[in-house]
Amino acid sequence: MTQRTRTVAFFPEASFGAALNCIGIAQALRELGARPVFICHAHFQGIFAEYGFAEYPLQLDSPLSAADHQHYWERFIERNVPYFDQPPLAQIDSYVAPAWEAIIDTAIESEKPLQQLLARLKPDAIVLDNVVSFPAIAAAGCPWVRMVSCAETELPDTAVPPYLSGASSSDAQACETYREHYLQATKPAHERFARFLADCGHPALPAGQFLEDSPWLNLLLSPTPVRYEREKPLPAERYLYLDGCVRSEAPYIPPQFPRHDEAPLIYVSFGSLGAADVAMMRRLIDAVAQLPYRFLINVGAYREHYDTVPDNVYLDSWYPQPAVLRECQLFIHHGGNNSFCEALYFGLPSVIIPYCWDGHDNARRAEEVGVARYLPRFENPLAALPGALAELLADKAMEQRLGTVREQMQASRGTEAAARAILGICAD
Known about the structure:
One of its GO terms (biological process) is antibiotic biosynthetic process. This protein has helices spanning about 15-30, 65-80, 90-120, 135-140, 170-200, 270-275, 280-290, 320-325, 335-345, 360-370, 380-395, 395-410, 415-425, and strands at about 5-10, 35-40, 55-60, 125-130, 145-150, 215-220, 240, 265-270, 295-300, 315, 330-335, 350, 370-375.
C-alpha cells in the first residue's frame, strides 16, 4: 500500500531569517516525498513561490491592506532606528516592549484567518517559526513544531543569560538586572496577550514568555560550538538541535571590482531591519572604501538611497546568502540567527555589529567561544572595524577552528534531520 503524501504547513513570521531557514527544511521535506506549503502574511508573498512552494496568504482581520501592513512595519522599523545605538538594557523600554505590543497586534489579527485556513488545508503537521503563540495552531488537530530561529536564549534556563540581554552567563548581576527590568517593562503586553489567549481557550504562559514549547517537537538553530550548558538539559525526545539548517541555492559568481579585485572578499548584511538604517550603512561604506578588501553589501529595499559607490564595493538589494558565503573569506553581520549560523556553517570568521533583539545574545556568545569579534554599536564599531578585519583574516588558529566547525556542521545534514523528525510526528 502506498503511503499518502504528508502535507506540512510552515508558518514563519514575516522576516527573511525565519522564512529562509524554513525553506531549507521544506526543501528536504520535498526530497523525502512530502508536500510542504507556506502560510504567509499577504505582504510577504512571493518569497516561497520563488523556491517552488505553494503559498497561502493570510487575509488578516484588519482594516489595513497588505500594502498598508508592509508600510506599517517599514514605518515601525524606521521610527526605531534611533534606538539601535542603545545597549540592550536601554532598549527594553525604547524598542523591545513596543515591539512585543506590535507583534501581539499581528497575532490577534491572524487568529480567525489562521483558523479558517488550517481547517481548509488540513495539514499533517504545522511548523511555527515565530516568537508568539497562535491558539489556532494548538487547536488545529494535528502535531505542531516550534522552530527556534532566534538565539538559544529564547528558551529560558537559570544557567543561560536572559533572552535579548546580550549578557554573559558569568555576569550574574547583569543577568538579574536585565531580567527584572524586562519582566516589569513587558508586563502590560504580557497581560494583554494573556487575556487574548484566555478568550481563545489557550493556557496561560509564564511571566515574560509569549510562546510555549511544543509537546511534540522543538527545533533549535544552535550549533554545537555555541550551545550553553543548561541547568536543566532539554529532553532529546522533544528537542532537536540542528547543527546546520541551510537552504540550497544556485552558485553565485562574484562581480569584478575596479579596485582590489584579487583581495579577500567580505560579505556585509544587517538584514532587512539594519538596511533601514541608511545613515549607518553610508558611514560603513565610507569606512570600508579605504580598506584593501572587496565588499559585497546588502542594502535591502533602500538601493536607490546610494548615488555613488566606491570601486571596492558592490551593492545589491538581495543576495543568495548561502551561495555568496561559499565565495567569501569573512562576514560582517548583525548577529541574526541565520547569518550567525550560516557563518559557522561555511567556516567564516565574523565581525558582529548587533543593533537589537537576539543579535546581542549571538554576538556575545560568538566572542565568548572564539568564533567572531563583537563590536557593539554603542561603542563606535566603525572605528574598531579595520583592526578587527585585519586580525580575523590573519588569525590562523581561528581559521583552523572554524574549519573543523564547518566540517562538522555540513556533515550533520541538519535540514534532512529536521525533515525526518517532522515526518516522524505526523499523525497516522
